[in-house]
Write a structure and sequence with these properties.
heterotrimer, A alpha/beta, B alpha/beta, C alpha+beta, A: Beta Polymerase, domain 2, 4 helices, 7 strands, C: alpha+beta, 8 strands
């Protein structure tokens, strides 16, 4: 794959030299590191350059460096499926970034996921809520690295230790039900 | 009929109920993939009287086909309380029995036993099509021999939603406070 | 003069495509707005996978999309092989192609059940499930399990193929092909089905690309885009085949694209059996610790583009880790049931009677959205 001249010409001069090619096999992609304040302008430029097929937003949590890294994955159908990854880093204490839901319609739902699993607030998004986790989880955003869900589950269901059967307050039916005479086939 | 007459607790209603079990048409999770071979081509369940019914008001048995998340549990309890007596519960796959593969998941229920009175368990991950068939046949035998008491004594529930929330959330609080 | 009515096409419904709920806003008989309510199948895969070793994670992968499990394993494997920076042996590439194509065939035959069932064409459902039984028995013969194979592994495939692999596979194809031809003549060219499906849910090509559609939904609108031809992963570069596509973009075209894909799959499997090298290694053994890196695996599953993005970073400065740092899956059903459905319902006249045909022709797999 070669550099996309149309894309390079549409980028603002700050980023013109920062494209790079990485990856191999199906992950071969163009990569671009940007500042979080330029997200909307870069994604608009990229949309005009032909990368209008939105794949997803991957959020990675680095608690040691105190950042969230967002990777926007886009692909272009007219350039035969070429992948473009745009990476930004935002601060973990103030996780705010602009929303791109009006440029790419699918980003609306990927940003809801970023909100409910990590707690990132997308400015300009009018529907941030708990969508998948609605009745499934009460508490802080579960995919952050400082929430130890395994320990929480062990304490609630297993009495705190591994390699134990789940504790049950009662058993309606099953092995302690209404069978008599050892009819457990 | 001959072998059924030799059983001391033979009753004609039980024999008839076991031959015509209607299950709710609800594909709740993974194990639902091995039910189409049961409903149709190779192992035809309709020869044994089992048919998927569209509404819980017209069904006898609820089949839980895999892991149960907390959101599905609300739906299952609602369906179970809308079924008229006599009603039976058939649970398949390892996940609702002891937790299974998702033992450390924050949103699945580890033992469905606490919420619904279970009659037949079908183990496996996932159970083959023949195993589901054997589960249905075992349920048929149990009902026909009269080994299941119906109606089951259940405590007075009051409002359904409140009961569900009370059970699930208060249990978590109690377990957490018990640990200190 | 009618008021808007809100009803739920809830999780327990014979016309719902699995365990998801929709919130419909109706105006008379016409559906004005549709909203998806997911979350009934959420298990928290991405968090659970950060606690297990990378080879134990492969066991959890096929359970993400139950109807088409091998492509999830394949995308995970591609991403892992990019992190380890190796290429699998030639024999493994051809075996992967054969397994993936059989999985696509089985998934399309199960799609027939979800599509023909709600419009009461039960004969087509029975034939499709009977044909799928042959494929599941073949999977049992090669990999040991009918549904969750755990066969495609980073480095190659997990076990060697048996001695009579070629003749057994050709026998299975010989049994399935007449059944698919029966479905072709008996269902896809049936006048009642044509009347019900033509003109329903038109999706233009530019809208499909803009809203993120992939797979047969995109190809039914006329866009000739298939990842097997664009990225040429595994052994697809050496096999030549045509990509089926439609032109008008309604439910009938999408259904015909899937039918033609079934024929294409059989053609690909026959070619792969001829070109495969039967001697040679089938797997490279990999070390137990992960190097630092990042991999993106994109494959063309039966429903569209499946992407696995794996990042391997040390969790503390001194260790090489056994577990991946972050895994993100994006299934193909997320755009189909959210943006595309909303767009079609807002721009076309969809009545409540057309809704099962429309949702069935988009071929959703609900565990993809919730993971």
């Amino acid at each position: 794959m070669s550099f996309n001249d149309e894309l390079v010409s549409l980028l603002p001069p700050k980023y013109k030299g920062r494209l790079s090619i990485t990856g191999s096999n199906t992950g071969k992609r163009l990569e671009l590191y940007i500042d979080p304040c330029d997200v909307r302008s870069i994604l608009k430029a990229v949309y005009d350059a032909g990368y209008n097929h939105f794949i997803g937003i991957t959020v990675v949590d680095y608690p040691m460096e105190n950042v969230f890294e967002l990777v926007y994955l886009l692909s272009s159908i007219e350039r035969n499926g070429e992948l473009l990854a745009i990476r930004t880093k935002i601060k973990r204490d103030e996780p705010f970034i602009d929303s791109v839901a009006d440029i790419y319609p699918l980003a609306y739902y990927q940003e809801i996921e970023g909100y409910e699993f990590f707690g990132i607030i997308f400015r300009g998004h009018n529907g941030l809520r708990k969508w998948i986790l609605l009745d499934n989880w009460e508490g802080p955003p579960p995919l952050r690295k400082d929430i130890d869900t395994r320990q929480i589950v062990l304490e609630i269901f297993y009495g705190g230790k591994r390699y134990e059967r789940p504790r049950q307050w009662r058993s309606l039916g099953g092995y302690s039900g209404l069978e008599r005479g050892g009819e457990n086939e | 009929m001959a072998e059924a007459k030799m059983n001391k607790r033979f009753s004609f209603t039980n024999w008839v109920r076991s031959r015509s079990l209607w299950m709710i048409h609800y594909c709740s999770a993974c194990g639902a993939i091995e039910l189409p071979p049961n409903m149709m081509a190779p192992l035809d369940l309709e020869r044994w009287g089992v048919m998927p019914a569209p509404s819980p008001r017209q069904s006898d048995v609820i089949v839980i086909m895999g892991y149960v998340t907390k959101k599905t549990l609300k739906v299952l309890l609602r369906l179970y309380h809308q079924m008229p007596e006599p009603r039976y519960v058939l649970v398949g796959c390892n996940c609702p029995a002891t937790g299974g593969l998702y033992w450390d998941s924050y949103s699945t229920i580890k033992a469905i036993d606490e919420f619904l009175p279970v009659d037949v368990w079908v183990p496996g991950c996932m159970p083959r099509a023949e195993d589901w068939l054997k589960g249905f046949l075992k349920l048929r035998e149990k009902i026909g021999d009269g080994r299941i008491e119906c109606p089951r004594p259940i405590e007075d529930l009051g409002e359904l939603e409140e009961w569900i929330y009370r059970e699930v959330k208060m249990r978590e609080e109690l377990m957490r406070s018990e640990r200190g | 003069m009618s008021k808007a009515l809100t009803i739920f096409l809830g999780p327990q419904h014979p016309g719902a495509p699995g365990n998801v709920a929709f919130k419909l806003v109706l105006d008379g008989e016409r559906v004005v707005d549709i909203d998806l309510i997911p979350g009934f199948l959420h298990r928290g895969f991405e968090k659970m996978m950060e606690y297990r070793r990378w080879d134990m994670d492969l066991v959890m992968c096929p359970r993400i999309c139950v109807e088409d499990p091998d492509h999830v394993e394949l995308s995970y494997t591609h991403a892992m092989e990019q992190i380890f920076d190796i290429e699998p042996p030639e024999k493994a590439k051809y075996i992967r192609v054969i397994i993936a194509e059989f999985s696509r065939l089985a998934s399309h035959l199960l799609w027939m059940m979800h599509f023909a069932g709600p419009i009461a064409a039960r004969y087509a459902t029975s034939w499709a499930i009977a044909a799928r039984e042959e494929i599941l028995k073949w999977f049992d013969y090669v990999t040991g399990h009918r549904i969750y194979h755990h066969y495609i592994f980073p480095g190659g495939v997990r076990w060697n193929i048996p001695g009579d692999f070629e003749e057994k596979t050709l026998k299975v194809l010989k049994v399935i092909e007449p059944l698919i031809k029966d479905l072709d003549r008996g269902f896809f060219h049936h006048p009642i089905f044509i009347k019900r499906a033509q003109g329903v849910g038109r999706l233009k090509a530019s809208d499909a690309i803009r809203l993120g559609a992939t797979g047969p939904n995109l190809r039914g609108s006329g866009v000739q885009y298939d990842l097997r031809k664009s990225l040429r992963y595994d052994a697809y570069g050496e096999i030549d085949f045509e990509i089926p596509h439609g032109e008008y973009g309604d439910a009938y075209d999408r259904a015909l694209v899937r039918l033609r894909e079934m024929y294409t799959s059989i053609y690909i499997i026959r070619q792969a059996l001829e070109k495969m090298p039967y001697e040679g290694p089938y797997r490279w053994k990999l070390p137990p610790t992960l190097p630092i890196g990042e991999g993106i695996g994109r494959v063309e599953s039966a429903r569209g583009e499946f992407v696995a993005h794996i990042i391997s970073a040390p969790s503390n400065p001194l260790s090489r880790s056994l577990t991946p740092y972050r895994i993100k899956f994006r299934g193909p059903t997320m755009p189909h049931l959210t943006t595309i459905l909303k767009h079609i319902v807002a721009n076309e006249e969809i009545t409540v009677a057309d809704l099962p045909i429309l949702i069935g022709s988009l071929d959703p797999c609900p565990p993809d959205i919730d993971r």
